[in-house]
Fold:
Amino acid sequence: AFVSQIQQSTDRLQFLVEDLLDFARLEAGTFRLSPQDADLSHVVKQGISSLIPQANESQLTMVAEVPSNPIRLRMDAKRIEQVLFNLVGNAIKFTPAGGTIRVSLTPMDAEYMLSIQDSGLGISPENLPRLFEKFFQVDPSDTREHSGAGLGLAISKSIIEAHGGRIGVDSRLGEGSTFWFTLPSLTP
Ligand code: ADP
Structure:
């Protein structure tokens, strides 16, 4: 039991250090993408399967709606996976046991949209416009139940915008949230 607690704490520290390094690179203007041809369906499916154990541990149901055909895009797959981990990780953190997280990948006109819908706490309208700011947290107290530095969404926004996409959220307090992002189907 102690070893598993130590493991969880070191994982949290590692995520924190990675977020801080990305943040420092963004501030210094040295954050770079490494775009390659990749299959978005595959990246999303693989990301979801590695998050299922975490969702199960929190007694959440994960539903995936991902097209079976390959979606070839030019993108930095590692960075898109990082955004997916951040958004689904948040959905897991902020949804009480028994809830559902639905991840859907939908083709639109000239872009693809990935949405992550949770049945969790939701976000009040006055906090919504500030969510993607650096260090913003709805509950910034030291006693908050969840880990994190409030950098994940700011970093995710930079990654998606660097790909020519958009990122946003729709939410109702007490009902849940849907975070979404788009990626253009043709490289600019
Ligand atoms: P962190 O998760 O490290 O606090 P983020 O930048 O990823 O930082 O998120 C910022 C804040 O946005 C969170 O602290 C939380 O208050 C709010 N938030 C993010 N995702 C959700 C969600 N799915 N449901 C409710 N609140 C959320």
User: Anything to note?
Assistant: The mean pLDDT is 92. Residues 15 and 67 are 30 Å apart (CA to CA). The longest strand covers residues 176-184. Residues 86, 90-91, 94, 118, 120-121, 123, 131, 136-139, 148-153, 177 surround adenosine-5'-diphosphate (CB under 6 Å).
